[in-house]
Amino acid sequence: MSLWPLSIRALRCWLTVYRRIWRSGIWSSVLGPVCYLGALGFGLGSLVDRHSTASLGGVPYLAFVAPAILASGAMNSAMNQASYPVFGSIKWNKIYLVAQASPLRPGDIFRGHLMFMAMRIAMNAAVVIVIMWAFGSVRSAWVALAYPAAVLTGLAFAAPIAAWAVTVKLETSFGYVFRFVMMPLMLFSGTFFPLSQLPAGLRALAYATPLWHGVALCRAFSLGTAPGDPLGMLGHAAYLTVLAAAGTWAGTRTYRRRLYV
Amino acid sequence: MSYSPANVDQVLEGSGNEVLVRARGLTKKFGSFTAVEGIDFDLYRGEAFGFLGPNGAGKSSTMRMIGCVSPPTSGELSILGRDPVRDGSAIRARLGVVPQDDTLDVELTVRENLLVYGRYFGLPRHVIRERTAALLDFVQLADRAKDKVDPLSGGLKRRLTIARSLINEPEILILDEPTTGLDPQARHVVWDRLFRLKQRGVTLILTTHYMDEAEQLCDRLVVMDHGRFAAEGSPRDLIARYCSPEVLELRFGPALHETAADKLKDFSAERTEVLADRILLYVTDGDAALAAVRAAGLEPLTSLVRRGTLEDVFLRLTGRRLED
Q1: ipTM for the complex?
Q2: Three-state helix/strand/coil letters over chain B
Q3: Range of the domain at A66
Q4: Which of A100, A104, A105, A116 has the highest number of chain B CBs within 10 A, making it the mutation to test binding with B?
Q5: B6 confidence band (pLDDT: 50, 70, 90)
Q6: For chain A, how many structural domains are there in total?
Q7: What is the pTM of this model?
């Protein structure tokens, strides 16, 4: 049996469940970006723009920060999709344990769920891009590529997190990741201020984090600076792709180890 | 211990004696703990086979191995003639599983639960729809098809879980403690449905620690203890082999309990068991034994003559100790 058809069966299960619950999530996915762009872009942005915006690349703060909201939003929805839902599929609603009794193998169960996560990340990213556009923060038609870039950023987080989440025994572990991994990444990945503002040591650290690559990619497409640095773009995309692929590879193994005891 | 009692052929008459599950030296270890220790068995098409045993005896581990979700540590296991590690997916396509805990999706309706499950087996929507109607009829849930699962009672949920496990028309149905936690009415409905499935030729493999359930449903059973088979046979075989035809239960009251127990030790029963409140004599003829007890000058406060049961066998083989 080939790899994908069985995974699609798992995905369809998630779609059926999602059809029941999508209404409850739709407003938070709109409200979040509206608040961020409103507060940072207009509020903070009006202060920043009074001074020199040279370090931002000479663009208004709203245009600078909006693509970062897009990339970090993708990271956040990846974390939300890949943490508790994965854990709960073993401990709470036991979706994995049900699927396990069918022809689906652990790898199918993983890939099916990952496809659903990708779909949810893509849906949220689409909402953010529409709101970015409505706020007037999009500066280039290249923004069309910021969309797949954001989804790729989400997958670079979702796959490894899911691969780890399936092995988690206590749900409190997720709180630590939210506080000590996601939050620092969100603040220090060139999201709200350019990395040039950081001391050199921290800057090197930030360059190594996946979110910085996602932010850099989305920003270059949103501002239209991407064509000037094709190699840099490829580098960012390659970094994120490797992370997503490694997570997918690891997940197939961790799921098997966790489900086939 | 390999097993092929004389009356298996009678039990399995008409089944063609096709072996569906075959295990030799089947072993499952978790680290240094051995859950299942080198068991041998053959399960035949059309029979109802029970794994009995106290908690922690290795029943569920065995069931998970048969369900192809737990690779054996060593030994041979073949299910439907195939290797569960290499062909797990293809084997599971022909199995039905009723897990110990209900794993229904409570946010979905009764019908949606079957739809989602049917899709796992790659069934087209119209097939799932037809089978869902028939299965909900079968478990008497047709009028709840559009209801959410959450408010259903334990008995209804269990029946729904059974209906779900049948969506792929399995040849083997694996049930892990199918009636644990159900009230007596609900248990009898479940037994009735399982009996009908057996009549239709579905092979049943179940675990239970209810002796009445084993007697009701199983053609053959094994008593498991510490990962091994302590005994195997039909319920009647086991009673004949490990118990006596009748059991005489005597109560003397706290004052006389120990003296009576002392005197009855040398009594000519097959076996005597002294419990906290009563004394059990395993005998061939209960009334005759009671007369003999009285003739010996012992007058019990109450006495009861009953037939030997599977529960007596179970307690004899696995002891009265409490574990886990």
Answers
A1: 0.90
A2: CCCCCCCHHHHCCCCCCCEEEEEEEEEEEECCEEEEEEEEEEEECCCEEEEECCCCCCHHHHHHHHCCCCCCCEEEEEECCECCCCCHHHHHCCEEEECCCCCCCCCCEHHHHHHHHHHHCCCCHHHHHHHHHHHHHHCCCHHHCCCECCCCCHHHHHHHHHHHHCCCCCCEEEEECCCCCCCHHHHHHHHHHHHHHHHCCCEEEEEECCHHHHHHHCCEEEEEECCEEEEEECHHHHHHHHCCCEEEEEECHHHHHHHHHHHHCCCCCCEEEECCCCEEEEECCHHHHHHHHHHCCCCCCEEEEEECCHHHHHHHHHCCCCCC
A3: 3-259
A4: A100
A5: very low
A6: 1
A7: 0.91
